[in-house]
Amino acid sequence: MDFADGPEEPLLGGDVTEGLVRIDDSVRRPRSPGSALVESLLTFLERAGFDGSPRFLGIDAQGRQVLSFVPGQVAGRPWPDWIADDERIASVARLVRRFDDAMQPFGVPEGWATKQLTNPPGMPASIAGPPRFVGHMDITPENVVFVDGGAKALIDFDMARPTDRVGEVGNLLLWWAPLMPAVDREQAVRDVDPVARAALLVDEYGLAADDRQRIVPVARNAAELAWHSMRNRAARLGGGWQRMWGEGVGDRILRRQQWLAEHEDELHRAVTASRTSFS
Fold first, then answer.
1. Helices 215-237 and 249-262 sit at what angle, rounded to 10 degrees?
2. 56-59 and 144-147 beta bridge pairing
């Protein structure tokens, strides 16, 4: 398919992928070794009738991914004050639930299991359950599009990978509760109650009771894995990974580990006492 050229508007805010631009109603992204997997995911979602993600439209003359542009409001940095709004975060949880439900028939196709880097020496074992589907797993405010105050779409699927509902919800809580000490939170959410917000997010997602029991242990384990993974990616891949490591992301992860250890009991009580769950 031929795609029209036009003025390119740089799209800023990503940590890793560089060179994103908007041309009219499309987004152009440089392709990477994992792009074909993402393209298959987006094509599946379109055929399934899921309306909360961009459409994969093809490859342009420069070899870039062409995606539909999703109009709406996206948080930049520093995060805007509306990120602290409970109604907005509740809508994010509901959107992620719809996405995860839509992804169930997709399963874990061959190729996704080998997408990730080899675990570096010293990295602890994961306690996550067996992967059940391909999750988004990068549900930052920069990757959610809002329309009329509600979460409309997830964007940027570069970190999509096999997981289960506990892993996906743990990533949701990391960014939207957020599960980290106040010193490392954006100013907009510096004064929120992350434990109460975690309970709200789990409720609105509708996580099953058995999975709620696993949220906090898996979150602590994920923080341990993240430190090793980020250091490994910085060393092997460079680019944005190296920049983030140089800017102190490793130290922030260590502080997150300490915060989770200190708040483990109250966080566990909050998420397991939630009022609503689905199967």
1. 170
2. unpaired
Residues 165 and 44: their CA atoms lie apart, in Å, by 19
The total of other beta-carbon atoms located within 10 Å of residue 85's CB is: 15
Query: What CATH number has the domain bearing residue 138?
Result: 3.90.1200.10
Number of domains in the chain: 2
Residues in the chain: 279
Burial (0-12, 13-18, 19+ Cβ within 10 Å), 133: buried
Helix (H), strand (E) at residue 238: none
Same domain membership, residue 64 and residue 85: no
Q: Name residue 145's beta-bridge partners.
A: 153
Task: Tell me the per-residue pLDDT of 55-77, one tens digit each, with 9 for 90 and over.
Answer: 999 999 999 999 999 999 999 88
Q: Which two tokens stand for residue 230?
A: 């980020």
The pTM of the whole model exceeds 0.85 = yes
Q: Are 76 and 190 in contact (CB under 8 A)?
A: no
pLDDT score, position 155 = 96
Please indicate, yes or no, if residue 127 is contained in any of the structural domains: yes
- Bridge partners (DSSP) listed for residue 10: 21
Q: In this structure, are 165 and 226 located in the same domain? A: yes
Q: Is residue 76 part of a domain?
A: no
Q: What letter would DSSP give residue 118? A: P
**Is residue 114's pLDDT more than 60?**
no
Classify residue 278: in a domain, yes or no. no
CA 276 to CA 279: how far, in whole Å? 10
